[in-house]
Amino acid sequence: MGSPLSPVIANIFMEHFETTALQTLSQRPSLWLRYVDDTFVIWPHSKPDLDHFLAHINQHHPSIKFTMETEQNNSIPFLDVLVTKSPSGKPAHQVYRKPTHTDRYLHYRSFHHPSVLQSVPNALIRRAHQLSDADHLDQEIQHVTTALTSINEYPRHKIQSKTPANKPVANSTPEENQPAATPPKQTIVLPYIGQASHKIQRILQAADIQVRHSSSNKLHSILYSHKHKHPNHKKAGVYKIPCECGKVYIGETGRNLETRLKEHRTSFRLSDWDKSAIVKHAQQHEHTIEWDNSHLISIMKHWHTRRIREAIEIHRHNTVPQDSGLYINDIWKPLINKYPVTPPPPPPPAPPPAQSIFVFYTKNILKILRHIAERLI
């Protein structure tokens, strides 16, 4: 996972899986539709045959297992659609919401650009037209309208019962026949700060510059953690533990540094000198270990490479009495001594101090004006 090819490869594999699994059955579903890992199946045979079908596809590959949900009261949800079997035999469909759904969306009073706020009802109305049949469309639009006006405080006139203009429900016009929009010369992203943003946007649009707005007030600025973060503590490599006397301990670990430091702390608590040279040194001389200043010198995954780097760093540092690691021939020592000792990483920046609203807006406006000046020069 993580590769851009992962979804493509997964789809290719699932297509092969479906072809081979369905071809080896005597009784097959009359309809098999799959979207990623969700499958919609119409089974025209008996319930025991359906159980046999599920067992068959679950035995086809050891890593692919299916679970099954059958219809309840002639209805079954599939993705965001609730499919219902009508008395006439024609399937009906409408928007499906889980029982835990709260109908809470981006609140109308939240500090966002009007286009962002307007996109919420537009998207919900569009979804109503896309997923609801004619018998359920009015009911869905009424539900959306009630949720937006009563819970999220949207004005009634902001909610259109029809789809937004120039945005058809389906691609009724082929892409090659649609007129190509003329792209602007430049696009700029600015923080949204209220009325000043609208004035700046009009000025820039006159110069054929498209403006996009971002929100500068986010939960991250309120819920900022003051605790120092050490992202490299979750990685393996060669590490350094300093002592207050100026000496250090150099070690290597194939796990993450955080786990290795916990083991050193356990050795300190148990006075287990055989498992930690830095603990032995500190407790023998009554020194303090600077645990918070411990850090990775180099991130390395391969064991042999870590051992070589560990031996090099032991030679370069003023270490506590410890194993010298792998043997280094004297011919390499002048080259090793040529380069300075790796400095510790800088501490993470402190959180910004609390500022008044006036200072906040002033700084943002100045930032915007500087940004505009650079773009227009």
Automatic annotation (TrEMBL):
Classification via Pfam families: HTH_animal
Location of the GIY-YIG domain: 234-338
Polar residues bias: start-end ranges: 161-180
Stretches the record annotates as Disordered: 156-183
Domain spans labelled Reverse transcriptase: 1-110
Matching PANTHER family: GIY-YIG DOMAIN-CONTAINING PROTEIN, REVERSE TRANSCRIPTASE
Name under which the protein is recorded: Reverse transcriptase domain-containing protein
The organism of origin for this protein: Strongylocentrotus purpuratus (Purple sea urchin)
Species classification: Eukaryota, Metazoa, Echinodermata, Eleutherozoa, Echinozoa
